[in-house]
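Run log, item B.
One chain of 354 residues. Sequence copied directly from the ordering sheet:
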Amino acid sequence: MRQVFLHGERDIRVDDVVDPALENGIEAAGRDAIVRVVAACVCGSDLWGYRGVKPTPKPRPIGHEFVGIVEEVGSAVSRVRVGDFVIAPFYVCDGSCLNCINGFSSHCLNGGFWGSKVHDAGYANAAQSERVRVPLADGTLVVVPGQPAENMIPALLSLSDVMGTGHHAAVSAGVGPGSTVAVIGDGAVGLCAIIAAKRLGATRIVAMSRHADRQALAREFGATDVVPERGDEGIAILKNMFDGIGPDCVLECVGTEESMDTALRSARPGGQVGFVGVPAGGAELPIDTLFGSNVGVRGGIAPVRNYIEELLPEVLDGSIQPGRVFDLELPLAEAAEAYRAMDERRAIKVLLRP
């Protein structure tokens, strides 16, 4: 089968590899599924390696978001059946350990990540491929009722990461009815965070964005205001929009030093920052700033598996439409162009079809 590999800085190749197979030995214990990928995508976090911000000492398979159809299941799999259309979160989890039960399946004691070995459950293929071996299939995969229409694929794919991650930013920041919110970042996660903030009852949502197409989509998703300025100027404008003190909640959806600094200095005293941007570029928490402002900070790796079943009904009935963040679709063979398009900001998020 074909699979996408990152060979080094700005070096994406589609290579031929052996098809994955069920592993029924002691390690896997019959808990696998083989899923034929219907759609995968490129994530903003994939770009940190692509740009060389994170080193790639040797070629590695890449991709952590996919939806597909189950082709085989192991002898111990009971919740997932051959023919099911499934959503895979961006990690593997068993759904039954204490961390999963506590709502943080992204920290599953027995789980792991695509493109790596998953504790004692064997290797999980990366998602930008034609087929994926899914360890711990019963805990990891979410079955979508029936066979979804073709036009639903992008929205369902968003639940594997960006919609749940944007939701986690809003939940972590304590967004609720009547909240005022600023969203730092106009990528797919930031745009989905706007959806989440509106869904949770925010009455005013400011999108920090400098790109006209993303500004327009942000407004359609629920942003009431747009601030294109950055740095001290952007912070001053944002604070002035909220009686000189800033919004209740700031959702940090980028992961750089600048974006975290903006988030921390924009929230009102006693406000809350929810951060989900994958750290890159030296972001740190300045204790003096936090002490002097009483601003709280919470967030991290989004437990999207815990959110999928909450968000899925609203995706299926069209109440929320996060699939609109996909503004370019390419075949898997053109993965290198998909990365270029996102790196050059010609696309918000690229969907790949095997």
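Observations after the first pass:
- Residues 2-161+303-353 form a domain with the Quinone Oxidoreductase; Chain A, domain 1 fold (CATH 3.90.180.10).
- The chain has a mean pLDDT of 95.
Flagged for discussion on Thursday.
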